Amino acid sequence: MKLAISCQLDYEIEQNTPLILMLRPRSGSGQWIIKEEYLLEPSVPVSEYTDLYGNLCQRLFTPQGSFTIKTSAVVEVTEQIDVDFSANFVPVQELPDESLIYLLPSRYCESDKMGNLVTTIVKDTQTGYEQVETIRQWIYENIRYEYGYSNASTSAQNTSEGRVGVCRDFSHLGVALCRSINIPARFVVGYLHELKPMDLHAWFEAYLGGRWYTFDATQTEPKGNRVVLAYGRDAADVALATQFGNMELVSMFVNVEQAQE
């Protein structure tokens, strides 16, 4: 399927402020960027670099006053995500070097504190894909999805104790539980077609059988039609906007729809 995605951020800025954005998807596994547009109003110089996780980052110096960022793209995506219960657990000594960072505890994913909980969750399952799917299903069934109970400092441990959160929290918990049983897991942010209410979305991926698989604990069943914006250890690595001064986000608009052929 071809998806038309768009995002608009409107800011009020007290004074010129450095800003790093992460709003450009890149072609890769499961997605191909057909065309895209990136507009800044008023226009300012922008430079771009690739971060440690392979994400495209835009660096700029914002002007004082009203400032708007508009991004849009048409992306060819897969309509279904791969499900493979034969995907095996990969022993740590056989993991590729670049996956090892996703085994470690991180700011929002305290995997070193999840051992007792994960043992209870996966005690009767086979290693590998079945373990991660059991974790995903446990989160879906035991964590209540609701706005207003978590914030920017809520961690996986907080969510496991409070049993409430949003997609960010569900994904942090999935990542932390996977890492606690030595399965590399990474946090993903992007777009999901037909998400309700429409917004940018978060899910997680686990490394099994020599590749990454997608898991989304907010959904009842595997669902494709996703556009990845960024990967990281947790939400700290994939902030869509990182500001170094006083800026107020006045409004944000996100849209995902099937592109017109």
TrEMBL record:
UniProt superkingdom: Bacteria
InterPro entries, per the entry: Bact_transglu_N_2, Papain-like_cys_pep_sf, Transglutaminase-like
Sequence ranges assigned to domain Transglutaminase-like in this UniProt record: 159-219
Pfam families hit by this protein: Bact_transglu_N_2, Transglut_core
Gene3D superfamilies assigned to the protein according to its UniProt record, in alphabetical order: 2.60.40.2250, 3.10.620.30
Annotated protein name in UniProt: Transglutaminase domain-containing protein
Lineage, opening ranks: Bacteria, Pseudomonadati, Bacteroidota, Cytophagia, Cytophagales
